[in-house]
Write a structure and sequence with these properties.
CATH architecture of the largest domain: 3-Layer(aba) Sandwich
Radius of gyration: 27 Å
Shape: elongated
Structural class: alpha/beta
Largest sheet: 6 strands, mixed
Length: 208
C-alpha cells in the first residue's frame, strides 16, 4: 500500500512511499500479540516482593509448652503462623517472571500490530522529525498539526534523537522509540504511529 509523506506541519510533501504488505498487510494474529505483550510486561517486573515465613522470622525455636495436657492446641514454636508475630503462610517470595518466545512469533506479533494501525489509517510517515532545540511545544504543535492531540502517539525515529526524546518526555500521551527497538507493546499502546521516513527501511531489514 502507498501512503503520502508529510512534513512536520502536517502538509503533504507530494511524495509517496510504499509500505510493504509483508509487514503492514499481513493476516493479524491476536494470540501472537497477546503473548508478546505479556512477555514485555513480565520482563519488566522486578520480582523483588518478599515476606517472612516461619523459617525466616526472628524468634526462638524452643517448644513453648508441653505437647499434651494443656487443654489447648499443640504448638512447637513461637514463630508458628497462627501466633501474633509469627511467619506468614504462603506469602510472596522473590522470583523471576521472565519467559522466552521464539523470534518468528515476536516478528509476527509486531507485523500484526503494524497491520492493525495501517488498516485504521493511523500511520503517518513524516520526512524527518529533527528539531534544533529541546522544546515540549514542538511536539504539542506536531500533534495539533495532525489533529491527534487527544490520542496516544508513538514517534518512531530512524536513529536515536535526543532532542525529540527530551521534548516529549513531559507528555503523558507521547512515547519515542527507535525503529530497531520498537516493540509490539509500544505499537498497541498507541493510537497513532508517527513514523520517520528512514524508519521504513529499518522495518524492511528487521521484519520483512
Amino acid at each position: 500500500m502507498k501512503v503520502s509523506i508529510y512534513n512536520k506541519t502536517g502538509e503533504e510533501t507530494g511524495k509517496q512511499i510504499e509500505l510493504n504488505d509483508s509487514i503492514f498487510g499481513v493476516e493479524p494474529n491476536d494470540h501472537a500479540i497477546y503473548l508478546d505483550c505479556k512477555q514485555y510486561m513480565a520482563n519488566n517486573r522486578q520480582g523483588t516482593h518478599s515476606s517472612k515465613h516461619r523459617g525466616i522470622v526472628s524468634g526462638s525455636t524452643k517448644k513453648i509448652k508441653r505437647q499434651k495436657g494443656t487443654g489447648t492446641a499443640r504448638a512447637g514454636s513461637i514463630k508458628n503462623p497462627l501466633f501474633r508475630g509469627g511467619g506468614r503462610i504462603f506469602g510472596p517470595e522473590p522470583r523471576i517472571y521472565n519467559f522466552k518466545l521464539n523470534k518468528k512469533l515476536k516478528k509476527l506479533a509486531r507485523k500484526s500490530a503494524l497491520t492493525y494501525r495501517a488498516k485504521e489509517n493511523n500511520i503517518f510517515v513524516v520526512d524527518n522529525l529533527n528539531y534544533d532545540e529541546i522544546k515540549t511545544k514542538n511536539i504539542i504543535a506536531l500533534k495539533n498539526n495532525f489533529k491527534v492531540d487527544d490520542k496516544k502517539m508513538l514517534l518512531i525515529v530512524a536513529n536515536p534523537n535526543k532532542n525529540v526524546y527530551l521534548s516529549s518526555r513531559n507528555l503523558a500521551n507521547v512515547n519515542v522509540v527507535t525503529a530497531s527497538d520498537v516493540t509490539t507493546y509500544d505499537i498497541m499502546w498507541s493510537s497513532v504511529l508517527m513514523i520517520e521516513e528512514g524508519s521504513i527501511d529499518v522495518f524492511e531489514n528487521n521484519l520483512a
